[in-house]
Amino acid sequence: MSLLRIRKRTNKLMAVMILILALPGCRDVPVPRPRGYFRIDFPPKEYISSESNPLSHKIPFLTEYPLYGNLTSGEGSNGEQGWFNIEFPAFKAKIYLTYKEIKNDLPSLIEQTYTMNVKNHISKADAINEEIISNGSSNVFGILYDLKGNTASAVQFYVTDSTKHYLRGSLYFNAEPNADSLATVVEFLRKDIVHMIETLQWKAD
Description:
Blueprint: H1 3-26, E1 47-49, E2 61-62, E3 64-66, E4 70-74, E5 83-88, E6 93-101, H2 106-117, E7 127-135, E8 140-148, E9 153-160, E10 165-173, H3 179-198, E11 201-202
Antiparallel strand pairs: 1-3, 2-11, 4-5, 5-6, 6-10, 7-8, 8-9, 9-10
């Protein structure tokens, strides 16, 4: 047998051996795991009337807000009254509430709300869903907006009696927007916003 043939057989044998040794390793190739997030323990759903809050005399409406939230007052950039917050320190979240008395300017207020709270987030939103609010017994009408994607605010709303009272609200987090990591918290607090709207009553003069 020639030296050339021996070398060819040796090369083939080496190639087969390398392939056999490599096969078991292929089965153990590490696969990246999906990104995980810390588990959040939510408190039980409990609510308290805004009437029991020391700020009640400043608030022209009644509603039930979460017991694990803090109702505080605020003011607009020009010192305007009618600004309130519900803070959730455990979730680094806050619901901003702004009350306006309608003075023949309802269309303008609705357009302002849409521009400030929805239109400014359109570029970041994957989708925007609208839910009509209509409660004839309490004279509360409006729209609840769900903004999907990495938006600064995931839930927005406005409600009105169409003649005198107008209230808008928005949920914000003191964290970098991340729809995946905040999804469960958004859903949890969204239910609280819906409860607030369902229990809202305008104060009589």
